[in-house]
Specification:
Length: about 120
């Protein structure tokens, strides 16, 4: 891939925000699995994934998202996808997994949703 992926994690109040940027494929998606793990949240009670700067995402990226979803459900920690880039939206649509996630149009909306989302499953944000 031509663009090196970046992963930046911050904590805003009790919500961990993971911002990812660049191109993610089989060779780079493993970084996401670790970054998306709810146990890495430093005590955060919710996680927001800012996907607005993703330029390429393949099935390995989707696998990382689905693993994150499962781990968050298991831990009882809400997970919200914020502002997914067009390639991420397309990946979710093509694979029929859009309904598996809580989506929000902005990071601010995602943080608000994460604070109020039930950990039982996805809702519209």
């Amino acid at each position: 891939m031509s663009e090196d992926p970046e992963v930046l994690t911050t904590v805003t109040g009790e919500v961990r925000v993971v911002r990812v940027a660049g191109e993610f494929d089989f060779d780079t998606a493993e970084r996401l699995v670790r970054a998306f793990d709810p146990r890495e949240g430093g005590g955060a009670t919710a996680t927001v994934l800012d996907l607005s700067q993703v330029r390429f995402a393949d099935s390995a990226f989707l696998h990382a998202l689905l693993q994150a979803r499962a781990r968050h459900l298991e831990a009882g920690v809400p997970l919200v996808l914020a502002q997914p880039a067009a390639c991420v939206v397309r990946l979710l649509e093509v694979t029929g997994t859009t309904g598996s996630f809580t989506l929000a149009g902005t990071v601010t909306a995602a943080v608000s949703a994460a604070r109020g989302v039930s950990s039982d499953g996805p809702t519209e944000g």
